[in-house]
Amino acid sequence: xxxxVTRGRxxxxxxxxxxxxxxxxxxxxxxLFEPVRRQAVAALDLQRNATVLDVxxxxxxxxxxxxRGIGAGGHIIGIEQSPDMLARARERVRxxxxxxxxxxxxxxxxxxxxxxxxxxxxxxxxxxxxxDAALANVLGHLKPGARVVASGLxxxxxxxxxxxxxxxxxxxxxxTSLEGLVRPWDKLAAQLDGFAVQxxxxxxxxxxxxxxxxxxxxxxxx
Length: 222
What we know:
The protein is α/β, with parallel strands linked by helices and 222 residues long.
């Protein structure tokens, strides 16, 4: 069952309910998007021994790719508000025997993050990207110059109606608000230097990247 979406603010309670339903089959449902995940993680340009934040980590599908980049000496902090999704992420960590993964069960806006990280990934987390408090909290725990990458759905050009039909169908199962779906990255862009956006998956998705300027919440146009 799809979650009712609005054009207003994201609804955290609705998101928790949404992902309680999706958790058992989530990995299979997002298989089509895995090439985008790989491109997004590659765009982080991770260094060995780095600390990376996986914001809205879900079931931990990005962990193997992140681990490959940072090596055994690095650290992954996975932030996820859905207990059902986080339980599957915890099982993934246990199966791989990773000792450098910390899981934080909390909305991104309220997550308690120790220290400052070298990179942050926002993959398929539209609601988080539209939440000023979430972005401020996450970016406030990054080192100046930290690499930041976001990827997810967005509206294609109006005449690409088959693409937008796909976006709408996918959004009904993954977001609680359609607000900002034209430019999901614009709030993040205002906080990053060297910002760039690339269309992928036929224009249905994007990968945005840049380096954290070191001043969370600054107001500028990118």
